């Protein structure tokens, strides 16, 4: 079975003929699509035009959780199955969210730059940080990532609140979104990007956060209105942000958020650990086996 791994990563597996293609190499991707029976998809959008070049394609296997980068209707129209693998990267993302909130609270970006430039010592008192212990952290989402992060934050001594679409009155930490925002010193986003969640954190909702709050996003850029975020940071209402994801990816170098030293950034790499890859390949190979055997796929989305 011909598998097209759409990432710059070599991998072999018994019974699978795996070819790889870096995500930025559109020409190679187009040339490999006609023979692909399975695409192992990471993040580069998979469009109807791509699928038109792939007459043998039977399965789009998302390596990870969010399927917003796949044209699901186009896949369904062409009889191509789509599956994801929720949870396989949850530990990595939860740890990254924790890392970004600590980095923002402790001003790692300016400290790092000044230390490298030989201007780090003595440490500038204007960069005095804050501790997570004792602060209230509001999580948007109560799924696999938010649940792991909640455990980590509780161990550190933070007070954790969370919100979901479906109220969870049995859990004393659950709050309606606006109540959660009013109470949160740090807010961290862990919900999918859908029509409903697009710009969920807009100017009005960001204004509900207490002055000096920190926003962390390891979910999808467009859940936050980036212009409103920039204004809230520029006005000083927000003290900082930790961003792994952006409205436009790859994030353009001219994005004004990148010029702020109270914003710590990553290139949508929260998931990127060796352990995540091992889990990705285990599920992806199992779904290829199931496809060949005519068995029900794991985590079929469509
Ligand atoms: N940066 C990265 O590398 C990665 C990013 N991600 C992103 O993180 C997201 C979360 O992942 P994960 O925790 O595994 O997903 P889950 O599916 O386990 O959890 C999603 C949570 O979002 C909640 N939710 C959905 N819609 C809304 C809404 N409108 N308002 C409030 N809550 C909502 C759901 O609860 P309910 O249905 O009750 O509302 C659920 O608790 C993914 O969708 C993906 O976009 C994931 C992995 C890697
Ligand atoms: O799993 C996800 O949704 C990611 O963003 C990483 O690919």
TrEMBL record:
<keyword id="KW-0670">Pyruvate</keyword>
<protein>
    <submittedName>
        <fullName>Hydroxypyruvate reductase</fullName>
        <ecNumber>1.1.1.81</ecNumber>
    </submittedName>
</protein>
<comment type="similarity">
    <text>Belongs to the D-isomer specific 2-hydroxyacid dehydrogenase family.</text>
</comment>
<dbReference type="InterPro" id="IPR036291">
    <property type="entry name" value="NAD(P)-bd_dom_sf"/>
</dbReference>
<keyword id="KW-0560">Oxidoreductase</keyword>
<dbReference type="GO" id="GO:0051287">
    <property type="term" value="F:NAD binding"/>
</dbReference>
<dbReference type="GO" id="GO:0016618">
    <property type="term" value="F:hydroxypyruvate reductase [NAD(P)H] activity"/>
</dbReference>
<dbReference type="GO" id="GO:0030267">
    <property type="term" value="F:glyoxylate reductase (NADPH) activity"/>
</dbReference>
<dbReference type="Pfam" id="PF00389">
    <property type="entry name" value="2-Hacid_dh"/>
</dbReference>
<feature type="domain" description="D-isomer specific 2-hydroxyacid dehydrogenase catalytic">
    <location>
        <begin position="7"/>
        <end position="301"/>
    </location>
</feature>
<dbReference type="Pfam" id="PF02826">
    <property type="entry name" value="2-Hacid_dh_C"/>
</dbReference>
<feature type="domain" description="D-isomer specific 2-hydroxyacid dehydrogenase NAD-binding">
    <location>
        <begin position="99"/>
        <end position="270"/>
    </location>
</feature>
<dbReference type="InterPro" id="IPR006139">
    <property type="entry name" value="D-isomer_2_OHA_DH_cat_dom"/>
</dbReference>
<dbReference type="InterPro" id="IPR006140">
    <property type="entry name" value="D-isomer_DH_NAD-bd"/>
</dbReference>
<dbReference type="InterPro" id="IPR050223">
    <property type="entry name" value="D-isomer_2-hydroxyacid_DH"/>
</dbReference>
<keyword id="KW-0520">NAD</keyword>
<dbReference type="InterPro" id="IPR029753">
    <property type="entry name" value="D-isomer_DH_CS"/>
</dbReference>
<dbReference type="GO" id="GO:0005829">
    <property type="term" value="C:cytosol"/>
</dbReference>
